[in-house]
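Before relying on records like the one below, remember that each one covers exactly one chain. Contacts with other chains, cofactors or solvent are not represented anywhere in the record.
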Amino acid sequence: MAISFNNPRKKLLTSLGGLLHLSWPWRITIGYLSIMLLLPMAALLWMSATKDPSEFWRIATSPVALSAYDVTFVTAFVTALINGVFGTLIAWVLVRYDFPFKRIIDATIDLPFALPTAVAGLTIATVYSPAGWIGSLVAPFGIQIAFTRFGVGIAMLFISLPFVVRTVQPVLRELESEVEEAAWSLGASNSQTFWRIIIPQLISPILIGVALGFSRAVGEYGSIVIVASNIPFKDLIAPVLIFQRLEQYDYYGATVIGVVLLAVSLAILFAINLVQAWGRRYA
């Protein structure tokens, strides 16, 4: 019995001794990641485990929570895919073409990074409301954008666009034009050169941008709470549901929804990373 007790203790002491011999950059990295990332996640998981698992499951799978997951994750995934296409196109135009006000338009791409999310939501709601510039054009056809799930999608598109553009742009700049010229000299057409030479090299940055945009869209709150009506089973997203639970002093319910968001986000990011690894290996 003494051996089975001492061995884990000895291993623990050996591990702690190993940490003491790490260089200072390693110590600072581990300490910073522990305080800023690992401890908050551990606290969230610990708080969610304070009640019976059946209670956790009841809250996590309640109809209003399932509806909020659907609006949040499905809309974020679709908008990330849309930005994967149009973000790549925008990066292509900014890198391959020269035109007036190019630098101003290039700088405008970063606007969602700098603009407060509440201002973004107010701007989108103003433009896409039934009385707004764009909303008034589609309102006669019975289409409403703001204060519906479409509005949630517009807000997610707005805040996640820069992630694809800024990850694809540097790779496009580094592509060697000699490779494309060699393909043309061997008889390849422009479309064959694009799909067989250029796109394989862009798959990894596009996937990274899509993953970052998806993660950002899932966690968005400030703009969506303004542009959506926040009605359950209509356009209520999970982050707003968490806030509503907190307003009702239901801290455990908010924690359960937060744990589900954390678990699903990590699982999807892990899957996307596997796809990226596959792309780097076979592209």
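Confidence is low (pLDDT under 50) at residues 1-5.
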